[in-house]
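Limitations

Structures in this collection are predictions, not experimental determinations, and the ligand pose is part of the prediction. Treat each record accordingly. The example that follows, with iron/sulfur cluster as the small molecule, is included so readers can see exactly what is and is not provided: the inputs are given verbatim, and the output is the predicted complex.
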Amino acid sequence: MPIDPKIVKLKAIVQHNGHGVRNAKAPKLGVHGDNVAVDQDLCIGCGSCKQVCPINVYDMIDVAGKQKSDPVRQKECIECRACEAVCPVKCILISPK
Ligand code: SF4
Ligand code: SF4
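Predicted complex:
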């Protein structure tokens, strides 16, 4: 199941690390980021997005002992979409700024 584009379009009511968070009602971690959105409930923490990103948008963070990708520098994104292509669970969605 890939990231749901409808969730990304919702208004963010929580901010974290400089980006909006959607659909994060506990125990869900939710979708982190705005123009670079990662569904952290689907993310398996493989780190491929961080490795492939040419400008280091992502940090890997520890959430309850599990690694999750967080788009902490989403404003720097150049929309190359390499991260979307490489993500094995398709939990990233890039949108225009
Ligand atoms: S679209 Fe490109 S620049 Fe933007 S976060 Fe993904 S890999 Fe990085
Ligand atoms: S490539 Fe996908 S599954 Fe792997 S860390 Fe990044 S967002 Fe998570």
